[in-house]
């Protein structure tokens, strides 16, 4: 290469030419001075010649030396860059698109490699595989833990287009001409400080004594103040031990403020206060039970209090004796292992009946619907609300899509009666065509929108009422103008029978409708053996006075021989899991297998030593689970873990597949986890 081929470029070239430009200017000035003073100009010419000679020598003679110095500086500068990058305090590495490490600095090697000489990053850090690499976007972030430290990982995609054309050492396919640059920030101390701040966040809560009036009535008057003082002491000690504050608002209501770290302690001991209060006994016939509501992970204290109120309302609606925690992500439940004792007073039923009458009177037509695959309780409750609407002079329809064999006798009896209109029963599609702005929808025997006969009907109506005896969960019917949910009632038919006695004076129910309501109570209570109370028998007596025929109802619900054999086979093939839980599969090739599965689950409870029974049935491409217990196990919280719900001793769930073994495996895993956690 010739010397003249090597030349400076850019700003450095211009900088080096400044002396030459200055020489030209001096010569021009010297010529101009000859016109003014030749002697002075001659003297200046001498200095200009000397200056030009020095500039020429420095520029042309030292040019190669300057180039050499520049090259040496560039080399040293690049070395400094490499040294700084290699000694950078942040772990830094360059990867190929398949995760192979091309280059890494000392900090990366020290913290993640050690003595290991792995070529691929996912062998060193399993959390960082190709799945987390940036795709179409240029950057990606994630957080990992390694050797007890927290790291914020930053991944950047650096394009190297044309790399293979200019690089002779390494060839990369054209569609993969890029590197992935990764650097990590140690955020252990930051996360620790954030957790500390989060743990100091205040949480509002409410504590109610569920059965205050009942426990006061069960103890002598002179001991009532002592009983209240002992309960107060339990609550105050539990909260004060966690550095919280307690303020008694009413005789049976408390407002509490705790730190989040205290809530975590409560969560760890499964809110042991619920059980501690039950141990208070000074001769009272009934144990006191609490409901606790907390609002966590909120941005303001006001929102925390609002969440706490929602949580306590839900805890009471689910029967009490439990803690409900609400945050922006959902709900958590603790306790609730025992059934709440029903109240003998009908004040609430009367208030709800009056409210329901006002809503019905204000509307032109009423649509009543229960849950899918309606049973006797659902149909009976629908007919009860239908009768209330008719007595108030309103047009009413029952929304029913599929008629199962369990309700076929009642359904046929209604259709055969000339006392009913031909359109008393509507399919969901026909109901959607008829509904208008002046319509009301009444939902019975369920409080979950997806479980209703027609969820779309709820979206079309602005006036919705809910009457149900199942415990509420996180998924409820929103914007209901009337919600009457009593978990301690034996059935929805019992609730509707009570409402009917107050909604219209001197009401006389036709015998066929009385049969429907009576059948609903009878089926849900297993012939008045489960979940029955004083009000259950009072409702049955009212229906008997209205003409319900016990013998006729019993004949309607007798099994045929094939169904009886299938039920017997289900019981015979049942598996006893953990010596206490019966699990069985019911044949799906018979009529109404879900009803038969529920009956088989009830039969399994008659076996000594069985605390809970679970029967799975395949029907219409899905698996239906029927769960039953007597009093020792809360099957409702088990069903909730599987996506279902129900009562403490009667619950169900559904699986969107037909693999029974997979469903049984999930059921067993759920039981195991809940036993280990102390939930059951």
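^ structure tokens above, recovered residues below v
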């Amino acid at each position: 290469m010739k010397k003249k081929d090597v030349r400076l470029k850019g700003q450095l070239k211009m900088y080096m030419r400044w002396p030459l430009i200055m020489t030209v200017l001096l010569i021009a000035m010297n010529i101009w001075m000859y016109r003014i003073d030749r002697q002075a100009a001659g003297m200046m010419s001498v200095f200009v010649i000397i200056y030009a000679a020095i500039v020429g020598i420095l520029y042309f003679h030292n040019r190669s030396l300057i180039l050499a110095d520049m090259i040496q500086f560039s080399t040293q500068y690049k070395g400094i860059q490499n040294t700084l990058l290699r000694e950078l305090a942040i772990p830094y590495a360059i990867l190929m698109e398949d995760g192979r490490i091309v280059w890494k600095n000392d900090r990366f090697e020290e913290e993640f490699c050690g003595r290991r000489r792995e070529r691929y990053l996912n062998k060193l850090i399993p959390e960082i595989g190709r799945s987390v690499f940036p795709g179409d976007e240029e950057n990606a972030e994630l957080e990992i833990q390694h050797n007890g430290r927290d790291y914020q990982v930053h991944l950047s995609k650096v394009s190297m287009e044309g790399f293979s054309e200019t690089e002779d050492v390494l060839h990369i396919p054209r569609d993969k001409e890029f590197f992935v640059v990764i650097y990590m920030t140690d955020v252990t101390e930051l996360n620790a400080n954030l957790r500390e701040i989060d743990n100091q966040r205040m949480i509002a809560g409410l504590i109610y004594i569920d059965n205050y009036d009942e426990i006061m009535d069960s103890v002598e008057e002179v001991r009532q103040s002592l009983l209240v003082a002992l309960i107060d002491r339990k609550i105050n000690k539990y909260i004060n031990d966690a550095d919280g504050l307690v303020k008694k608002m009413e005789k049976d209501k408390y407002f509490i403020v705790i730190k989040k770290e205290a809530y975590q302690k409560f969560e760890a001991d499964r809110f042991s206060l619920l059980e501690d209060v039950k141990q208070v006994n000074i001769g009272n016939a009934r144990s006191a039970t609490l409901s606790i509501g907390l609002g966590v992970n909120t941005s303001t204290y006001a929102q925390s209090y609002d969440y706490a109120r929602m949580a306590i309302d839900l805890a009471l609606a689910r029967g009490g004796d439990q803690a409900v925690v609400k945050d922006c992500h959902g709900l958590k439940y603790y306790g609730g292992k025992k059934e709440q004792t029903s109240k003998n007073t009908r004040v609430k039923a009367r208030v709800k009946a009056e409210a329901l009458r006002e809503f019905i009177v204000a509307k032109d037509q009423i649509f009543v619907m229960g849950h899918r695959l309606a049973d006797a309780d659902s149909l009976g409750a629908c007919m009860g609300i239908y009768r209330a609407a008719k007595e108030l002079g309103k047009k009413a329809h029952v929304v029913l899509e599929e008629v199962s064999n369990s309700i076929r006798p009642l359904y046929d009896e209604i259709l055969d009666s000339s006392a009913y209109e031909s359109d008393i029963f509507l399919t969901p599609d026909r109901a959607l065509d008829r509904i208008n702005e002046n319509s009301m929808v009444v939902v019975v025997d369920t409080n979950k929108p997806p479980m209703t006969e027609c969820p779309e009907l709820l979206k079309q109506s602005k006036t919705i009422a809910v009457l149900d005896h199942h415990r509420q969960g996180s998924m409820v019917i929103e914007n209901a103008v009337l919600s009457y949910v009593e978990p301690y009632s034996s059935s929805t038919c019992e609730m509707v029978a009570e409402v009917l006695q107050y909604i219209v004076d001197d009401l006389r129910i036709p015998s066929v409708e009385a049969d429907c309501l009576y059948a609903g109570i009878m089926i849900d209570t297993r012939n008045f053996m489960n979940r029955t109370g004083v009000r259950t028998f009072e409702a049955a007596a009212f229906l008997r006075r209205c003409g319900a025929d016990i013998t006729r109802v019993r004949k309607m619900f007798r099994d045929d021989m094939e169904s009886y054999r299938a039920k017997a086979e289900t019981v015979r093939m049942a598996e006893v899991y953990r010596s206490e839980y019966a699990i069985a599969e019911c044949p799906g090739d018979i009529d109404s297998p879900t009803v038969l599965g529920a009956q088989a689950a009830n039969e399994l409870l008659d076996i000594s030593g069985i605390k809970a029974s679970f029967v799975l049935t395949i029907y219409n491409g899905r698996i239906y689970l029927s769960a039953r217990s007597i009093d020792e196990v809360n099957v409702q919280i088990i069903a909730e873990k599987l996506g279902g719900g129900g009562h403490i001793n009667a619950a169900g769930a559904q699986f969107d597949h037909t693999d029974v073994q997979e469903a049984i495996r999930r059921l067993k895993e759920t039981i195991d986890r809940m036993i280990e956690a102390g939930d059951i």
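The chain has 26 helices and 23 strands.
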